[in-house]
Protein 1
Amino acid sequence: MEEADIGLIGLGVMGENLALNIADNGYKVAVYNRTADKVDAFLANAGDLKSNVMGSGELATFISMLKRPRSVIIMVKAGDPVDQVIAELKPLLEEGDVIIDAGNANYHDTVRRFSELDGTGIGFLGIGVSGGEEGARHGPSIMVGGSEAQWKNAEAVLTAISAKFNGEACCAYLGTGGAGHFVKTIHNGIEYADMQMIAEIYGIMRDGLGMSPEDCAKVFKEWDKGPLDSYLIEITGHVLDAVDDESGKPLVEVILDAAGQKGTGRWSAIEALNLGVSATTIEGAVAARSISAMKGERVRGEEIYGAGVKGNATISLEALEKALLAGKIAAYAQGFAVMAKASEENGWNLPLATIAKIWRAGCIIRSRFLDQISQAFDSGGAANLLTQPAFIDMMKDSNGALRAVVATCAINELPAPCLSSALAYFDAYRQARGTTNLTQGQRDFFGAHGFKRLDKDGDFHHTWPSLIG
Ligand code: NAP
């Protein structure tokens, strides 16, 4: 009976495809799902992979199918369902077995789950899996956190099913505790910023330059051959030239302009704020999704203030391409800076070059750009991309275009929260003499917070005039 190399709980979109991927790679996988019918359907539809899949709608039977020490992947809805599944699994597992949470967990939950399993002898790994449905089926990017010894139990299977970039597996052990889920969270934060900046550029093309979706699609397809070459730019071209079967119109014109969010972008922004690291592009992207969801208020806002100027922008497509590259550099610089700081605070020793490497294929933000980032971190230097030689050259070449695009947006009444925050970050990052000297003076005035001086060491306080009376 004990013949499966690994077990998987949760036959949703991701779980089902991950199980097929495992079977496809020659490993035997046992599956379980809360709604038992899905197990029957999965086994019935396994086709050529039939000999590598087994399963049961009964949890104890499912566990009895696994080779010891057992490795069980949980791929269910994030949050309480994960705790419920762990509680059901605990009495059925024994010392040496490992539970692997592969969902999009908040890393604080992962840390808590580690401590709750502490002393039971049952191991735990928190792994981030990126790539959506297709990635899960044909090779996702996998970010592993937990004990390195327990990772060894599942390493062969997870490495085999991951995406490959030039033959290198996009799967790596990144650090203890919640490191894997933290890195996945920041991956999603960067993804939010990347997508939002692309949407802002599309907005300039549509409303500023009066371009049709078809024409925009052509431009994005062209850009996919240059420095912006990435999965997100590629799918943007396809989304923009898709036609709606029902209306015959470009599909993008009938899609409601209101986005949902499941939490990872917001968590990224919250973690950055808690760590005291500037991640304004991620914050801008989260805020953009929030305002997108206020469709009714935006309609009312346009009635009150007018729609803004349409079709009057004068900006070249070349400037838009370069601006997107500059914005992207700022967003990735911020995301990696957040990870570097979290690594320091949590003692993770996160391998930044490896993270960039395992994001080169399989995941949603995969791109040529990530290969350049991995090379930059591989050659050492500071954690902020803006001080890495290859990116210094790119930023010097492209920040002028970002400036021109943000100015165009301001003049033409086009919102560009992410691109403009990328520019503001860049300008603040390279301003040796900032303006918080004034802020420090104000803080000392009303709260006696003190300040430091440029010309001597120590803490100082000024005797300010009283404004009372
Ligand atoms: P999904 O299609 O909505 O499937 C949810 C699964 O969770 C189903 O198998 C469901 O079982 C199970 N479930 C829900 N509540 C449960 C509970 N209380 N106890 C036991 N099982 C429960 O979800 P998904 O899209 O595959 O996502 C799974 C995880 O992967 C999530 O953490 C998600 O954030 C993450 N993720 C998703 C994507 C993506 O592109 N979809 C990408 C990366 C990561 P029933 O069939 O019984 O309802």
Protein 2
Amino acid sequence: MKLSGTFSAMASIAAGLALAGAATVASAQGLPPLEQKDRYKVGFPQMESNNPWRIAETKSFHDTAESCNWDLVATDAAGSAAKQVADVDSMIAQGIDVLFLPPREEKPLIPAVLRAKQAGIPTFLVDRSVDPNVAVAGRDYVSFLGSDFIDQGRRVAEWTLANHEGEGRIIELEGTTGSSPANDRKKGFDDVMAEHDRMTILASQTGDFARDLGRQVMETLLQAHPDVNIVYAHNDEMAIGAIQALEQAGRTPGEDVLIVSIDGTRDALQAIIDGKMGVTVESSPFFGPLACEVMGRYAAGEEIEPWVKVEDRIFTLDNAADHIDEAY
Ligand code: GYE
């Protein structure tokens, strides 16, 4: 009896210390602390749901809500940064405990991030980031959970250099203008290609990360640049759209045009197996479990690294068939 009494007293002192620790770490950074409790009201304002990547990410948050004891408040901004800002504001008004925000674009979401902080809500950016010259991890929000997009672009470029002989005439399909993955995937790829004289980027235009726009933009660019022999798409959906446009125009993707891209969707892995696509560098949408883990560490008083980096695999003909069953 006595022993267990002493033990529980010690345990509660330890818990108290841990809580005090949480407050100290958070306030030293000027960030709102997160109380330790059994259930949390968690906000997830999704930006759009027009592609398998977004749908898989939203599902990952819903699945995690059960295992991590969240009451999830999820919205869909239908491709509008302004609507996403309004969704965050409404979540703040509803009194969420914590916010997991995938900012559609780098700049427009910053005021919402700052308002969440002001309202005492710890915010984690997931899958996309905001302009680091304006809002900073560890000060304005806790942390960014996501991939290294510059490195993804670089890895696609390096794979392309190793797998395409002779002159490369490249069409680049960019993601959503002003989004961090579009900016960084372009930089990573273009910087590597700039060092190789045999590689020329003929045109680079946005397809907004969307399959149908990717197809339409490819159709137009193909007329202006019929000599294209490489397409670099910033995501798999646009790569699939480009394949459709090329086939419509009588070209043979995989034979006369090399298609390279990023994400690792089921359709892209299938296109690799079918010989239409060369490579896709992974960018995983399964953020729910990571969000649960990082939030737990933050509530326990741990200082969270400003960037919780996700490691990405690479899918080619060597391994696409091994991974297609787990793809989305
Ligand atoms: O590559 C794309 C999605 O932000 C990392 O957004 C994400 C990107 C992903 O719509 O397919």
Protein 3
Amino acid sequence: MAEFSLIDRYFKTAASAQVDLGIGDDSAIVSPPVGEQLVICTDTLVAGRHFPLSTSAHAIGWKSVAVNLSDLAAMGATPHSILLALSLPQVDDAWLEGFSQGLFDCCAPYNVQLIGGDTTQSPHLTISVTALGWIPTAQGITRSGAQVGDYVVVSGQIGDAAFALQHLGHPLQQRLDYPTPRCELGQSLRGLASSMIDISDGLAQDLGHILKASGVGATLSLDQLPLDPALQVLAPEQRWQYALAGGDDYELCFTLSKDNYQRLCQLNPTTPFTIIGSIQAEFGLRLEYQGQPQSLPLSGYQHFA
Ligand code: ADP
Ligand code: MG
């Protein structure tokens, strides 16, 4: 199949009111809303590296969008559109059917449009998605604003995906294959969170980025980690390893003052969230269990290990 018929068949969608010019020309044209800034990110998934080779085409399509919408959520942005750069070893219709369906299934609930991309042949299946979103000017939530005394909070449950990777076929594989980008929660944290990051490489490492960028430290209470029942029954070191150093969670980790935490509770977001610690002036990440300091050998996901 020629590149163009492949694009027409699987990826061309009707232009929406939000997009001035979508797929089909040399570039797409979009008009940013007045008073808002463009927020833009890109993330690549390589077969066998970022997902097991056994992953379904539908899940790969979903996840390639979800990980990018998660990055937008972590800034507090409203997602708008994506571009897709697809490198395929061969044209496999069944695979493309599943992949494009998964991609659009993840776009639909967030009103995200596919507005362009590139399609090439390559020995390795590689999917790069670029996502665009909007944030009211100067309201983007960065990693650098955590303040001494703030709570450290995470959304959802952590460690599920890392556990599932070691237990393929377990019901938690749904969390590995179909992460939920926390777009609504991210947006409701505008003006409330002092810093935010999405957890892709493990909580300890990703919270570490906030601490470094903000010039502060934190203490986490291991008793408070929101864990699935399947992890709660594991030996403590094992469950903490999944939760703190596993990765692929795509939950939000954010900091906010006590007053803003109360405001967030009043907003009553649909996504659950849990206080897991607090920010202190003393640098570094400290762990406590039942009020006692704990030391754990932790490492997050290393991209060049
Ligand atoms: P060019 O050669 O000018 O880069 P292409 O022939 O690669 O253009 O692409 C033609 C049109 O199809 C462009 O609008 C491009 O954005 C879009 N496109 C190409 N591949 C994809 C894809 N995998 N998903 C979505 N749109 C795509
Ligand atoms: Mg091209």
